[in-house]
Amino acid sequence: MESLLVDCGAGARKSQLANMLLEYLDEEQRAAFVREFNALGLPGITGELDGDGAFAVLSDGRTEPEAHHEHEHRTVQDVRGIVEASGAPTSVVDDVMGVYAVLAAAEAKAHGTDESHVHFHEVGNDFAIGYITAFAMLLGTLSPQVVEATPIATGLGYVDCAHGRLPIPAPATANILEGMPHFAGDVEGELCTPTGAAIVKHFADRFVG
Questions:
Q1: Contact residues for 8 (Cβ-Cβ < 8 A; gap 6+)
Q2: pLDDT digit string (tens) for 119-151?
Q3: Residue 75, by phi and psi: left (phi above 0), alpha (psi -120 to 50) or beta?
Q4: DSSP H helices in the chain
Q5: Do residues 173 and 30 make contact, with C-beta atoms less than 8 angstroms apart?
Q6: Helices 76-84 and 126-142 meet at what angle, rounded to 10?
Q7: What three-state secondary structure class fits 18?
Q8: Ramachandran region, residue 142 (left: φ > 0; alpha: ψ -120 to 50; beta: rest)
Q9: What is this structure's pTM?
């Protein structure tokens, strides 16, 4: 693939971005990807295709809505240990940790602390690790020479998270989006999450449109 366009006109969320890449694969390739993902040693993290062919990450067999009120408190080192022990290719590990480097810098700035002292909440849970890993694996399969992205829709209003009620984009998301083309749009709700913004920031070579 010469170039890949990531359309962020409807936002940038981890599951949305992974499934955007999955659309480039045929049915047989999708099934092979799920087998490869589930062969990894990510503890408790698996993936499945639903009836419409969309990919979903599971944590101990539960979907993200089912585990919504459970929060992990992981450091960058915790995440690195999980991903490095998974058996994923070095290129995938490097990309996953590249995304987490973006997240750590944004969280540190938002909380006025050093990156080594950042404790991830939602962005460090099983689902975030799973979708970031899936995106990195899928991109490796597609092997585009250039990754392009369109300006990112953030949405409007407020979002409730582990840190309370925050304006959209949340502080960590806003930090990641600095220097990246984005717009609010006219949809109420969080269209761009910190994880989604970090994925785009790490992987996009340039923005178009």
A1: 149, 150, 151, 152, 153, 192, 200
A2: 887 889 999 999 999 999 999 999 999 999 999
A3: beta
A4: 14-22, 27-38, 76-84, 90-111, 126-142, 171-177, 194-203
A5: no
A6: 50
A7: helix
A8: alpha
A9: 0.94
Tokens 């689902």 sit at which residue? Answer: 127
Neighbouring-strand partners of residue 47: 57
Alpha carbons 162 and 155: distance in angstroms, whole number: 19
Burial annotation 53-81 (CB, 10 A radius, 16+ → b, else e): eebbbbbeeeebeebeeeebebbbeebee
Q: How far apart are CA 156 and CA 57, in angstroms?
A: 27
Residue 148 DSSP SS3: strand
Tens of pLDDT along 17-51? 999 999 999 999 999 999 999 999 999 999 999 98
Residue 198: which of 180, 143, 52 has the closest Cα? 180
| Closest alpha carbon to 197 in 142, 139, 128, 115 | 128
Question: Which one-letter amino acid corresponds to residue 75?
Answer: T
Specify burial of residue 34 (Cβ count, 10 A radius: 0-12, 13-18, 19+).
middle
